[in-house]
Amino acid sequence: MIEFRYDTQLLIEGENLDEDVIIDYFTKNFKGDCLLAVGDDELIKIHYHTNEPWKVLEYCSTLGEIYDIVVEDMDRQSRGLKG
Questions:
Q1: What's the confidence (pLDDT) of residue 74?
Q2: Domains in the chain: how many in total?
Q3: Has residue 81 got a pLDDT over 90?
Q4: φ and ψ at residue 41, rounded to 5 degrees
Q5: Nearby residues of 63 by Cβ (< 8 Å), 6 or more positions away
Q6: Comparing 8-12, 60-64, 76-80, which segment has the lowest mean pLDDT?
Q7: Strands of 65-73's sheet, edge to edge?
Q8: Sign of CA pseudo-dihedral 22, 25, 30, 33
Q9: At residue 79, does pLDDT exceed 90?
Q10: If you average pLDDT over every residue of the chain, what do you get?
Q11: In a domain, 1, yes or no
Q12: 43 to each of 6, 11, 19, how far by Cα in Å?
């Protein structure tokens, strides 16, 4: 069984974005794993496995414009179904 079901990926476009601040917020406020938050002060790529992707999207939308959003169900994928 997969502990964190949803592979959540997106881009955040904004101003004064800080990878370290984002990583710290995720670590303190969300349950999940495989966190990547990379980019610069205007564009950050997020990759995160969680059971509550809507919380990730909600937080990231407060930082700037979010787009290229992908939420895939890794449990379905592991059973050979479309995620």
A1: 94
A2: 1
A3: no
A4: -75, -5
A5: 12, 14, 17, 22, 44
A6: 76-80
A7: 32-39, 43-50, 6-13, 65-73
A8: positive
A9: no
A10: 96
A11: no
A12: 22, 7, 10
